[in-house]
């Protein structure tokens, strides 16, 4: 129950402050239990009990000595960090006192807009000394940034803000025991299909960052990587749909930043997670950290194993090929991901404001996939005229290395004014796919024999270097200039060999017509400037990023080379207005780019079986997106509402095109369509009532594309919408029940359409060891509804393909933590604006 100190009827101003504090506190603080709130009292406020403890103090600004009347004070028990007082507020003279405290050790935190937070961990209340007099507490100002209202959803740990939304996984029980893919499926506006391809607002051109640094992986490699990161190693996910010019402009849809564990405490702290499931999953991860004096060290490791079955079907009608008139197929297979990772972080403080850091991340594993497809050729009367089977056996191996050296200088406890990082990463991938077929009943389309056994092998290396420097300079308390530069050089070399089995020798003979190699090199230089200004309740920001890029894509076997050199300007602008502390509106504009990656450019043919193949398009051009977005946010004591209407226009949009060639083979590739236009809105809300917490919403947008520039006009118009809901019911102080559901309606695409998408999870969690651990039981896809399908209709064939990915399973996870978490200095967020920390627990 809420404990609110009594306030005399005559003191209206104190009463109003009490109501305001309760409303703000309900939104800004995550409370893992039954909270007790306290309001600053005046002389007319009666004490709850004559022998209750009390904390007193006064808040002033550093250097000025002026009282800080906007201060917000929270108190936690030092023994287990349980929140005792939510948001007490200071009076007009900066003074405060909090009563109703039992004897014990407490930690007090003071926050105020425009100042860095202050923490006092040495507060003691005893029967002999019931009053803790803290005296004058001094707060340091930090450089101004665009103020953003942040709403913290209780137990959900959802922070909604106009520039980016953050979703904590601490209480995301419906992802417990899963992978990063399961986490992303719980995040609004993000969708992950059955092949683990990530989209944001329906757009696949999204940058996925790991700990604030863009992953060098893309396409299939990124999908496999995300499917093998244990969910237990992910602490939160940040989504930025319209970043400013300070951010890297890559990814026209925006940025998804996956934050992995990187925490340590004074002394030694850490934890572990262990899980298993009905899919033969084994999930083990652990971390340990130590902070001693100026040195902080952190180490984590994880191991992940799983076994998933999948099934599928297709029904094809040939409109131009008389035999066969119809082709039906059924498929089944299994995948076995095995993944290991090791993360090391370190930081050494040279002075109070200067620190150097050295980080490393190593990950690698093996992904095996076996699949069999069983085809039936039918005549016009749907009578069987041919039967044959196709099989594939693929093994994919990957090793990823990432090393970073950094220097950071701060002004005050939390605001970085200068940072420089040098990063080297290298990914080495290899794959081998064995393809073969069995002919049961021949017809004129199959011939008298199946092709020889085929082996596709490839080796790929992707090294890259990044040097980035960011500098922030405040001009007074209302203006801030941010500037910096970034240089990137990266390459991608792949050697692909396709061979056929020679029955006489038993060896595979390479086919020079299909085997190939490519070499891709890219250099990008960028500078930016962002100016922020605050005038009363109005905040403005304008920025410009200038980039020059040069790429070279060569095919040594054919002597072909594709050279490009181009410059780009990426402006951004933000205008926001705070009606109140709980209500804000913001209008933003930005320009972003999606550059083709080598996987999209490579013309090397990849086959999953003899009837399905993919190849890239070396003539792809970058796509540019201009986005305008409006953010409306309103907070209440019961929760919050956020509405984001937007418009996105893309030139030379890169789209995934699926067609059927004259021989009946399904062909997939990429192509630039002239332009696309998406207009829509996202709606997200949080709601809390008693033991229930609900987070839900949805999106709807109209999508149109002008694909008249393609050989076959695949222009399309479609209305796309989805709904999602995540509810948590607190059955007791130690037990939570959570349910998650997501539905995306069917929609048209270039050259066809995609079917509806449904995903559901249920989870039950029991806290253990005084909230230092838990056991979670999760049911994934309980009704076996998760499928992915598409329909191709290009005038030559009509094909309906449906895939079922075997996500259904029962999983149990046990976690245990020790010590108290203290985060290391945040890594650079690909150019994320630095500012005050978001309020939270």
Short description:
Helices cover 4% and strands 62% of the residues. It contains 4 helices and 48 strands.
Shape: globular
Give the mean pLDDT: 81
Q: How far is the first residue's CA from the last residue's CA?
A: 19 Å
Helix content: under 10%
Largest sheet: 22 strands, antiparallel, barrel
Secondary structural class: mainly beta
Tally the helices.
4
Q: What Rg do the Cα atoms give?
A: 29 Å
Number of strands: 48
- Unreliable residue stretches: 1-50, 142-156, 821-841
Strand content: over 45%
Describe this structure in words.
The protein is mostly beta strands. The chain is built from 4 helices and 48 strands. It is 4% helix and 62% strand. The strands form 6 sheets. The protein has a 22-stranded antiparallel beta barrel. A 7-stranded mixed sheet has the order 8-9-10-15-16-13-14. The longest helix has 17 residues. The protein is globular, with a radius of gyration of 29 Å. The two termini are 19 Å apart. The N terminus and C terminus are likely disordered.
Layout of SSEs?
Layout: H1 12-28, E1 53-61, E2 72-77, E3 83-89, E4 95-101, E5 104-111, E6 118-125, E7 131-139, E8 151-152, E9 158-160, E10 165-168, H2 180-185, E11 190-192, E12 198-200, E13 206-210, E14 213-214, H3 219-226, E15 234-240, E16 254-260, E17 263-264, E18 267-277, E19 282-292, E20 295-305, E21 308-318, E22 326-349, E23 354-378, E24 384-411, E25 415-441, E26 454-475, E27 479-501, E28 508-510, E29 516-535, E30 538-555, E31 560-580, E32 583-594, H4 598-601, E33 606-609, E34 612-614, E35 623-636, E36 639-660, E37 666-689, E38 692-706, E39 716-732, E40 735-744, E41 747-749, E42 752-754, E43 757-768, E44 773-780, E45 787-793, E46 797-804, E47 809-818, E48 822-823
Parallel strand pairs: 1-7, 13-16, 34-37
Antiparallel strand pairs: 1-4, 2-3, 2-5, 5-6, 8-9, 9-10, 10-15, 11-12, 13-14, 15-16, 17-48, 18-19, 18-47, 19-20, 20-22, 21-22, 21-46, 22-23, 23-24, 24-25, 25-26, 26-27, 27-28, 27-29, 29-30, 30-31, 31-32, 32-35, 33-34, 35-36, 36-37, 37-38, 38-39, 39-40, 40-43, 41-42, 42-45, 43-44, 44-47, 45-46
